[in-house]
Amino acid sequence: MNAPADTALGxxxxxxxxxxxxxxxxxxxxxxxxxxxxxxxxLAPVKARIRETAAFLVVSRARAALGLEAATxxxxxxxxxxxxxxxxxxxxxxxxxxxxxxYVRKAQVVSVTRDDLVGQYIGHTAPKTREVLxxxxxxxxxxxxAYYLYRPENERDYGQExxxxxxxxxxxxxDDLVVILAGxxxxxDTFFQSNPGMSSRIAHHIDFPDYSEAELAQIAxxxxxxxxxRLDAGAAQAMEEYxxxxxxxxHFANARSIRNALDRARLRQANRIFRQAMQDSPxxxxxxxxxxxxxxxxxxxVFAGGLAPQS
Length: 311
Known about the structure:
This protein is of the alpha/beta class. It has helices at residues 20-27, 30-39, 44-65, 87-100, 114-117, 125-136, 159-172, 185-194, 196-201, 213-226, 233-246, 255-279, 286-290, 294-298, and strands at residues 5-6, 11-12, 77-81, 109-112, 140-144, 178-183, 204-208, 230-231, 291-292.
């Protein structure tokens, strides 16, 4: 910052400029953005929006340093998209960015659903909601499937009470809490239409696209490596075919469904190795224990035309 001394008065002259690169370096958010790139396959539009938001926060901090920012900018967000598209992961990285830039005190995300906020009888909702808010204060509150808070078809539902408390806290404590609402886009749109007060408090909307088949295959490879397994050539081909079939079925949840499929493949692999060891030789090497084969993938009911377990 540029802040020369006023020798005549003995007082410091307010700064007239700031160094944005210095703010960026001191906040050290580039590693967080790099981690986001490494963690998530694809999602180019989402990553671009996160970088744009980070740039906005850096500039807002510079404006505050020069006395140009009258109040803390509204940072409440809405993440829309299908399950398994990385919304929770992005929320965690967003909390780190906000913390490093000084917009929240803690780089924490408290993730909740309707059941954590809404009670089942009179007088139960307010203390539940306030307890969650107390826990999340100073960080980020992530409300998944937020539209379930509003159930107009049930006049005895207590979700509206939770919404009213949230609205008050989102406005009065906007400098100490960031709320991220998440869920399917069409349902979130309907929720905002029914709750204009909530809509007016959400400044940033980010839509998460579904993954392509190629991206899902890449995600499967990353997951397998993180588990210290590998897919042999036949298993890799089988996994690509599985993805193509599974995407056409109901309840497909992108990366979440891929993880569940791999968990089931690991279970089949373990049983295959165990059976072989009991029938032939009990000795197994690291290569056998780490390799998932086509047999382990193709045993899924998806290849027989059946439905995969919901995920």
